[in-house]
Amino acid sequence: MTGSVHVKDTVPNHQDLLDAYTRVKPFVHRTPVFKSETLDQIAGCTLYFKCENLQKVGAFKYRGATNAVLQLSETERACGVATHSSGNHGQALAKAAQVNGIASNIVMPNNAPQVKVDAIKGYGGNVTFCEPTLAARESTLKKVLDQTGAVEIHPYNNYKIIAGASTAAQEFLEQQTNLDILLTPVGGGGLLSGTCLTAHYLNPNIEVWAAEPKNVNDAFLSLKAGKIIPAPSTPTIADGLKTSLGSRNFKIIKEHVYGVLTCTEEEIISAMKLIWQRLKLVVEPSSATVLAVVLKNPALFHDKNVGLIISGGNIDTS
Amino acid sequence: MTGSVHVKDTVPNHQDLLDAYTRVKPFVHRTPVFKSETLDQIAGCTLYFKCENLQKVGAFKYRGATNAVLQLSETERACGVATHSSGNHGQALAKAAQVNGIASNIVMPNNAPQVKVDAIKGYGGNVTFCEPTLAARESTLKKVLDQTGAVEIHPYNNYKIIAGASTAAQEFLEQQTNLDILLTPVGGGGLLSGTCLTAHYLNPNIEVWAAEPKNVNDAFLSLKAGKIIPAPSTPTIADGLKTSLGSRNFKIIKEHVYGVLTCTEEEIISAMKLIWQRLKLVVEPSSATVLAVVLKNPALFHDKNVGLIISGGNIDTS
Prior knowledge:
homodimer; alpha/beta; Rossmann fold; 2 domains; six-stranded mixed β-sheet; four-stranded parallel β-sheet
């Protein structure tokens, strides 16, 4: 593709983050911050919930997809974008592309729930099915890229996606100026790396922590090992967090994150119920990990102002 | 009790409604209004959801309880308040009393879920258990009233409760000035009668409609008959709407409501799932009736600006 040799592939700097914020602002919801006195009493600290479950397509992913789509050249726009996804990123990319009048090609496993397939088609995405293995997804995506000339937008291992994801935390710091800690779930690391950069550039006094299921504790192990440890295939209810860290994400995370905290499946379910009961918000199990680790480690958060990023609210209601 | 002969027991007038609004304002949440483009497309009209599930104690009931508690005389305050309730009103009254430093006495059936008992005790309520029949609830409440000298605050058949409930619609009209229709669920009729009065005094061009389960269609039948028809004991998932209309509520409703629409259990469940999926809000089945009847009667609402009051979000998460 023209211009591809000029593409910058370096960690976003302060100005890149601010530019992403300005760029996506007209396209994304400024999501609200929720509070609950009862949850504060239970947790022994003051909790602020940044509601990205109320973001377009029900997840923070729309921020990164929008930031990536808005930076395509004219030539790239003509060819569209592509990714493989069975989850929120596919919907986010399809909608961001639709809103900007360009084509999107989404490779999905042939066992993906019909509701997700319908959602992506509803956003005008061209769906190509493949066998439900990572190898098949990657080889099918390669075929689609070759046929269409589309630009691949990786769900997290992409600096434009990371800068886009950072806008959730940037908005949060504007809405809530007293935060001592920011806490996000970690799967591939898009939201966490973006949040790390936000704190680093905008308010380095803020500690950034991450939460993940004990069953898929690859971020915890990767930090300890100093290199990316692939995610184990152990099942978890937090299915958005099954992915291994991306190399670009890990580069940022290992430099800036305070620590990764893990929680059991029972703790995730219990935290999810608390959020449903107390905040009346539908959140994904992945998003409940952040509350679960706060409740599990009260000493770490005692009396602090803790900002929790609720990553999404897309659940199977059947 | 002193002064009881002077107590006004007439339909609230315009000024009474405005006074209730000013009175409760410092004590209640100004709940947000939610929207969803997808739901608008499905419904063929523009829907505004007034989120009283995000009200304190998770239901609009806190408005009426607060309005009633704030109007107690000094003598009455010393004796406290009382009611029988297995639901949201008990919690609302206990918390409103606690916030204002007075005692509350709540009669509950001995088969009430422990979580509801705990919630009321958590708000400082004195709980008295009784057999789970209406007769036992009323006789036990009478005993409590005799012993304590407390003021009975009926959950809906009380003009202060009605004026308090009206503040949800008053707030809604401030937030959304383009509404053609207001729609609430109807059980005992507290929210509906308050909403009728709000439209009548503040904007009589607004049509007020009500929604109820087909299985418990006593409001529909009562309007048709011109007199209160008791609620049948048919089961419904919308358990907040099982009550019969109060006489004060019916007096207002029969004069001002445009109509009552009913929906099946399946339609309630389907609407509730749509709200969970699209708005990411936890709502009670009772609250989902309003969306269910819009989807069932598209011609009535076509292209209108429709305000739906989501009455509460207290569900059993087990």
